[in-house]
Amino acid sequence: MTAALPDLAPLAWALLAIAALIVGFSKTAIPGSNTFSIAIFAAVLPARASTGALLLLLIIGDVFALISYRRHADWKTLLKLIPAVVVGVALGAVFLAFANDAWVRRLIGAILLLVIAFTLWQRRKPPAEGGPGSARIARAGYGSLGGFTTMVANAGGPVMSMYFLAARFPVKAFLGTAAWFFAVINLAKVPVSVGLGLITLQSLLLDLLLVPGVIIGALLGRWAASRIPQRSFDWAVIVFTTIGAVYLLL
To answer: How many domains does the chain have?
Structure first.
């Protein structure tokens, strides 16, 4: 088994363990914090390999998120997002077939910064402003970018977090809607990722060692989410997403 594991320094293993803990925490508390785990995996492993390894850990985190918040999802919003997300995932699969690691990191970082800026601008407008047309445009934009970034680098979480913030979802509705959204999307990505060679025996063995970190992080996140005020939750998502986006861009 050890022969199939990547040859990493002790510090690299420690960073991956921290990233696994953040994955669990992001699923049950602060979704934007997942950009740190994306950044760590992309720094320790080749960007394409990190995508496959991280995907399976995200699915484990999705299970804990569903257990905690499955009853709080906004299904109307989820169903309306599906067409745009499917288009984004398809475009992401095509991009991955041709892109190199440097392009993946920089493109995702640039997309996240643009989405953050747009979301902050959106939140400055009164909640009642805008009609069905603007809502459809927002769903199409966020949904397609969310599908693209989740396929390319498992970075759809930050994009969709910005969408849920722009829609002013309460904490539990935010987490419940995100839980179902990413549980479905991440499972759908598995066969595509296998076909692209992103999930391998090596990534499976690596994930097996990191799963305990995801579980611990998810339990800590569930404890924290029940105690965090709405305003603090919103700004934590924005700040963590921004830091991760800048790292990926640089």
So the answer is: 1
